Amino acid sequence: MSEARQPPLVLKDVSLTLPSAAGPVEILKGLDATVEEKERVAIVGPSGSGKSSLIAVAAGLERPTSGLVQLFGQNLSRMDEDGRARLRRGKVGLVFQAFHLLPNMTAEENVAAPMEIAGQRDAFEVARGWLERVGLKARGHHYPHQLSGGEQQRVALARALAPRPRLIFADEPTGNLDAANAHHVADLMLDLVAETGAALVLVTHDEALAARADRQIRLADGRARA
User: Is the pTM value of this prediction over 0.85?
Assistant: First the structure.
């Protein structure tokens, strides 16, 4: 089966155990999940239930202790760190609670950076267009410290979506924002993800935002309940 026909994400019997001062801690326990093309899946559950760890494992940022993680039909356990990064490039967008913008780059440079790395010649033109779409046309030459939290997250959203990836991972994207900015960023994210046709895996404590997804996966004690 060709990669294009594979679900963007498949997890089978995935477990993650991490060391701690008190001994090994089981974070994920035999977790199964599949995300289909264009599907929006919300990951919800109490703090410490493994939500962010699930994102890290699914995106290939963390190796599972056991089980199968397939990203676009590719088995991540067969790849080294560079291989996983190459697989994500242009196909996976990441949005984090803490924004993770590069402080020495302007908003425009932050959005253009992933496309430049991929060798896209019109990276800055595309970046300017995406900043306009998230309402930041006039802020392209500002550095992150000159932007509000809501503006920084909109830059991060533009950066994730500008390469038109097949899959977006968003880990508490509204968690650091006030209510008004959180609502605005959530609306933008859902509208633009739908427009690009990407699938979305969204970790959130916001039940109202989770309810806007196509499906919810509830994590409790490292296990999933769809």
Answer: yes
